[in-house]
Specification:
With 174 residues, this protein is α+β, with helices and mostly antiparallel strands. It contains 4 helices and 7 strands, in the order αβαββββαββα. The strands form 3 sheets. Strands 1-5-2 form a 3-stranded antiparallel β-sheet, with no helix packed on it. Strands 3-4 form a two-stranded antiparallel sheet. It has a two-stranded antiparallel sheet with strand order 6-7.
């Protein structure tokens, strides 16, 4: 979903009351960081530099942005934005960027991205994407643990059966 399609108030660094209420008891709420772990983000679609959501969500909130690849994943066309799907052992990879939040911006950025990606918490049935810690690779092959938003299981299953893959796994070269 593009930011223009979102209800007013989404993506502005606040958690709407309705979203807080949808978080199941015992689940990690959106924006929460398990074990206090602050990871960079691997972005592959509309959050990449030059794309619409980069300016809306990341401008002024990052300390570093660097090219990277997400191994064992495939990219599918969505309605104006892509979906990444886990593909262990496939040898496929997705092109993107590692985004390191600016000092003091991590919590605000995490909440904003969780809202943008419609992530309500681990395993929540309303999730469009699941936020997952995965290893991304820098151009020199160095692995970096990062958050990535992957299509939630029901959507991933649908995409595997009838989705349109993006050849080469690069949203910018589609």
């Amino acid at each position: 979903m593009t930011s223009a399609d979102r209800p007013e108030g989404h993506g502005e660094g606040t958690i709407p009351q309705g979203l807080r209420e949808r978080t199941p008891p015992g689940a990690v709420p959106p924006g929460a960081v398990p074990s206090g772990e602050e990871l960079p983000f691997f972005v592959y679609g509309t959050l990449r530099p030059g794309e619409v959501n980069h300016d809306l969500f990341l401008r002024g909130r990052t300390a570093a942005e660097e090219p990277a690849r997400l191994p064992d994943a495939a990219l599918y066309q969505g309605p104006g934005y892509p979906y990444a799907v886990d593909r262990p052992g496939s040898g496929s990879a997705i092109a993107g960027e590692l985004i390191t939040p600016a000092p003091g911006a991590y919590g605000e950025l995490l909440v904003a991205l969780d809202l943008l990606e419609e992530y309500a918490g681990p395993g929540h049935p309303a999730n469009i994407y699941d936020r997952t810690a995965r290893e991304a690779l820098r151009p020199d092959g160095t692995p970096v643990r990062a958050w990535v938003y992957l299509a939630a299981p029901p959507l991933a299953h649908h995409l595997a059966r009838s989705g349109t893959p993006i050849p080469g796994g690069d949203w910018l070269r589609r």
